[in-house]
Known about the structure:
By secondary structure, this protein is α+β, with helices and mostly antiparallel strands. It is 43% helix and 14% strand. The protein contains 16 helices and 7 strands. The protein has helices at residues 2-6, 8-18, 23-26, 30-40, 45-58, 62-67, 70-77, 84-100, 108-112, 119-129, 139-148, 158-171, 177-190, 210-213, 317-322, 334-340, and strands at 230-241, 244-249, 260-261, 264-266, 279-288, 292-302, 312-315. Strands 1, 2, 3, 4, 5, 6 and 7 form a 7-stranded mixed β-sheet that branches. Strand 5 (279-288) and strand 6 form a beta hairpin. Helix 4 packs across helix 5 and helix 11 crosses helix 13. The longest helix has 17 residues, at 84-100. The protein binds iron/sulfur cluster. Residues 144, 147-148, 191-192, 198, 200, 203, 205-206, 209, 211-212, 217 line the site of iron/sulfur cluster.
Amino acid sequence: MKEIELLPLPLLEWYHENARVLPWRSDPTPYHVWVSEIMLQQTRVAAVLGYYARFLEALPTVADLAQCPEDKLMKVWQGLGYYSRARNLQKAARQIMERHGGEFPTNYDDIRALAGVGDYTAGAIASIALGQAVPAVDGNALRVAARLTNDRRDVTRPETKAALTAALREAMPVHAAGEFNQALMDLGATVCLPKVAPLCGKCPAQNFCAARKADCAGELPVKAPKRARRVEERIVWLIFHEKKVALRQRPKTGLLAGLWEYPNELAGEAPIPPVSGEAVFAAAGKHIFTHIEWHMKAYTVAAEGEELPPGWVWADKGELRERYSVPSAFQAFSHIVGENL
Length: 341
Ligand code: SF4
């Protein structure tokens, strides 16, 4: 893949002029790079910035993260979504305490063995924070590599990813591996944009990019179509009593594990309020998870008494803010809850 061999020099020159200024880049310790990379999974950079600062303020070290009570951790993460990421962060922090005496591991295989850390994240930590010559191939890097080489294989297949990763590993400058990986991510995020919009005129690879030559960048990378999401129609009960709202904790495993929610159920199952009181339709909302889509109809219920099913709690405004983490899947109804507390 001669185009990838030609890439490092022009790419690094471009990066020195155009690197994005990001808070985790100013002090790239393994802990900082790790936390930022986990937050950036499935989440845009702009959305991560505020969370990253708050997270480090609340939990500045691996030891703090390892010891953090679950409620507090969920509170710090609240709104970022994909909560299993936060649980895995804590699990990995505990592994670092147990296996490595609290010191972040410096060996690639030890980093890769931590909970929630895949090839990309391990590569990012090892190259950016520790200067090791290992690739960190995310969706951005994969798109750039596929276009540069006009590779028409399906990039969702492990063989394709492995071949492009191997080519990048070969080409990577040993003494600037972290910069090379970050430059590739930045090029994908700001110039070699997805779909039909690459800004080839601004690209340091424009003179030798095979997709640009063939005028087919918009068709790459080739990806197998995704499985359709399952749609669930759900009824959400916003149950109020004396300026409190009813919450219930989700099961410890599965979707939104362990978080607190407004009681809800599949629309066909038992669409009568779970406590006595009049139900009034309030609003509709939608939330998209990776494999499921919730189409929700929320009803307010003014509960006649204090009694709740076992395991449910009443939460006032302060408790909702400080103690219970309600996932953003229910955000469409937060104004209704706010008006009733
Ligand atoms: Fe992407 Fe265009 Fe650069 Fe090729 S020339 S790597 S398609 S931005």
